[in-house]
């Protein structure tokens, strides 16, 4: 199922991290139709990060990338998720620069999985 990694600078207060974790999990379920209970979200705030946009240092930045199985979401679903995810990021961290990205990465079902089984194998054995 989906895996999302959000990289942020600077370190955010625990309540913002908790809210983003919940919001992103809920959005992935609502906008992309993924199972809430199997959605993994990792939020990282590297302590020695140097983030630049246009070669200029940024005091605040974010990058969200989510991996899903290729062919399981329409362009409209991905568009909606990207818009809603950026809305949530801006609510939590208003100072985000315009060049903050949300990426939906489609991976072939045979290239990833969980609990030792690929997504392709799971799809073949669904009732």
Description of the structure:
With 127 residues, the protein is α/β, with parallel strands linked by helices. The protein has a single domain (3-124), classed as Macrophage Migration Inhibitory Factor (2-Layer Sandwich). The chain is 34% helix and 28% strand. It has helices spanning 14-32, 75-92, 119-124; strands at 3-9, 40-44, 52-53, 56-57, 61-69, 101-107, 113-114, 117-118. Helix 1 (14-32) runs antiparallel to helix 2 (75-92). The chain is elongated and about 50 Å long. The model has no long low-confidence stretch (mean pLDDT 94). It comes from Roseospira marina. This is 4-oxalocrotonate tautomerase.
Strand order of the largest sheet: 2-1-5-6
- Beta-strand content bin: 25-35%
Q: Examine the secondary-structure arrangement and name the CATH architecture.
A: 2-Layer Sandwich
Q: Look at the structure and name the CATH superfamily.
A: Macrophage Migration Inhibitory Factor
Major sheet summary line = 4 strands, mixed
Gross morphology is elongated
Return the string of H and E elements: EHEEEEHEEEH
Number of helices: 3
In the CATH scheme, the class would be Alpha Beta
Structural class: alpha/beta
Uncertain segments are none
N→C terminal distance: 17 Å
- According to CATH, the fold-level topology is Macrophage Migration Inhibitory Factor
Instruction: Report helical residue fraction.
Output: 25-40%
């Amino acid at each position: 199922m989906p895996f999302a990694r959000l990289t942020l600078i600077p370190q955010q207060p625990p309540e913002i991290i908790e809210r983003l974790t919940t919001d992103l999990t809920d959005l992935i379920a609502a906008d992309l139709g993924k199972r809430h209970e199997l959605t993994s979200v990792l939020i990282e705030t590297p302590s020695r990060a140097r983030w630049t946009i246009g070669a200029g240092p940024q005091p605040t930045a974010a990058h969200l990338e989510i991996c899903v199985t290729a062919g399981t979401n329409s362009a409209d679903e991905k568009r909606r998720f990207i818009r809603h995810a950026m809305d949530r990021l801006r609510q939590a961290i208003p100072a985000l620069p315009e060049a903050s990205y949300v990426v939906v990465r489609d991976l072939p079902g045979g290239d990833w999985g969980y609990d030792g089984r690929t997504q392709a194998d799971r799809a073949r054995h669904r009732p």
